Amino acid sequence: MTSGTAFVLGGGGHRGAYEVGMLKALTHAGIGADIVLGTSIGAINGALYAADPSIGGIAHLEQVWRDLEFGDLFPGGLWGRARTAIRERTYLHANDHLRSWLGEHLGHGHIEDLPTRFQCVAARIEDSSEHWFTEGALVDAVLASSAVPGLLPPVEIDGMHYIDGGVVNSIPLSRALDLGARTVFVLHVGHIDDELAVPTKPWDVGVVAFEIARRHRFASDLAGLPDDVTVHVLPTGAAVGRYNDPAKLRYDNLADAEQQITTSFRAAKDYLVRM
To answer: Which DSSP string corresponds to 10-50?
Structure first.
């Protein structure tokens, strides 16, 4: 059990830059975390924050996102994806470059050695469970939490196989409550309030199903809050737009990272001043 303040960082792929702006606003406001909980891209951002939660650390994280290019993590282009899909049949990208990138920025230490307490979640295939990594190799855990089905292969750890944590807990508020946090800041990438519509296009089907799953759990967690817990859902500051906009579904588009960081930093900063 713990007490105090938790930062909860949700999944959202290339839109994870919004979380960086929120972390920057929190840090500049002098608000730190006793524990950081992450899912998928939130696990990556959360681990980088937990490794160095200082102003300098946030500046480094911001620069990492500004400099990041899709090919750094997933080289090979369209033909490379096609060759991998044909060869492997269940995913489009190998994860070796992502693993190397994580090692470069996180080192090769263990979760329990981070300056700020950190945990991340993945879905374990063999027993259909929500698994929280609380110790062990940091890069392995974050890679498992980020293994998007169909895009990346499952990650094997100690004979078990793990896929993206968003499958079981996309915005892991419940974990913060289970650990006894009394103040929780939720950092997300948007699209948790806009109305869904009945699918009319092939790509809408999976998007709508996933949105229902992740929003339902988060809404249920919010509805069941104990009286002595305060939750702050930080704003992205971005225009909502449509959850199924094809442009927003392009996971290989990192061109908007700088704008996302700036927008969410301003919105979160304003929220924290009024808090």
So the answer is: ---GGGGHHHHHHHHHHHHTT---SEEEEETHHHHHHHHHH
Q: How confident is the model at residue 195 (pLDDT cuts 50, 70, 90)?
A: confident
Q: What is the DSSP string of 47-81?
A: HHHHH--SHHHHHHHHHHHHH--HHHHSTTHHHHH
Smallest CA-to-CA distance from 10 within 139, 209, 191, 137 is with 191
Task: Give 164's strand partners.
Answer: 122
Mean pLDDT, range 193-218, rounded to an integer: 82
Residue recorded with tokens 């199903």: 209
Q: Note the pLDDT of residue 250.
A: 58
HSE, CB side, 13 Å, CA atoms: give it for residue 75: 5
Confidence (pLDDT) at 26? 98
Summarised one tens digit per residue, pLDDT across range 72-98 is: 777 666 666 666 667 767 767 889 989
Q: Which of 164, 170, 221, 264 is catalytic?
A: 164
174 is catalytic: no
| 170 is an active site residue | no
Q: How many CA atoms lie within 13 A of 123 on its CB side?
A: 17
User: Any idea what the Cα angle at residue 125 is, between residues 154 and 169, rounded to 5°?
Assistant: 90
